[in-house]
Amino acid sequence: MILLVMAGLLLWGIFWARGKAADELCQRVEVTIDNADSTQFVTPQGVITELASLGFKVVGKPMWQIDASRIEQALQRSDYLEKAECVKGPDGVLMIRVSQLVPVLRVFDGDQSYYVNRYGKKMSATASYHADVPVVQGHFTDRYPATRLLPMVQYVEGDSLLRSLVTMFTMRDSDNIFIVPAIYGHVVNMGNAADYEAKFRKLKLFYRKVMPAKGWETYDTISVKWDHQVVATRRHKAVKIEMTYDSAYDEPETDIQTMSIDEDRHTLAVDSKKKQATSDKKQETRDKKQQ
Fold it and tell me: pTM, whole model, 2 decimals?
């Protein structure tokens, strides 16, 4: 008898709870922003306003009539949010948790400007918000989104020397991506977005060995797009200066005085034999002085 009474009370409690839940109205909306920090541009009130603009008037509405999954999907389509979760809580509280979009690039495409997150989602740039992220200029499509440049951009951001050197990226087309350095007067053609590590090694070598000798205002374009060579175009002449590149030469201890420059062929290369001969001659001079 006791078991039967307990089972009856349990069933009655279930039906009573369901009936109360059916009659319960939404009293308020609580919004939590996971990644709110000093760069916050999404506010709880902004999310509630966004809900209303999307046609979701939830306060005062029976809880059973509120479709939490539809609210999630609608908020995730917002330009300013990366993800959203919606849960019906107790006491008529609708709980919403969101993450605001985290920009990784700012793109200038003609007269348009927008931010892009790591997934390629776009957010229109407005005067009320500014993020200090790398700048990319060019026209991007769904087939070739701006995030194709992200590995190269992140490589630059992870290198203190390159980060101070590169001011922005410009894409003329997928095979002609330029960087605009802080050094005034020239641009660097990186070619496509592949093999950027080797290309930046060639560029560093060129800056270290050629530019100090030839002058920082000699060239208007430096191209590292081809394998094993750097091609630099003179500013005032239709002549190309070609530097043969071999990764074996990319050594910090290589002496700039050992470089041979053939102006007729416009070729610069490191002469290891000449380096050895110069070293031997210096040693011979020191021996004579000691004698």
Answer: 0.68
Determine the distance from the C-alpha atom of residue 3 to the mean position of all C-alpha atoms in its chain, rounded to a whole number: 65
Architecture of the CATH domain 105-278: 3-Layer(aba) Sandwich (3.40)
HSE (side-chain half, CA atoms, 13 Å) at 274: 11
Which homologous superfamily is 25-100 in? Answer: membrane protein fhac (3.10.20.310)
Percent above pLDDT 70 for the chain: 76
Start-end of CATH 3.40.50.11690 domains in the chain? 105-278
Quote the Cα angle for 83-84-87, to 5°.
Answer: 155
Residue 120's identity, in one-letter code, is: G
pLDDT digit string, tens, across residues 73-117 = 999 998 889 899 999 988 889 999 999 999 999 999 988 899 999
Query: CA distances (Å), 281 to each of 157, 258, 284, 289, in order?
Result: 44, 13, 5, 13
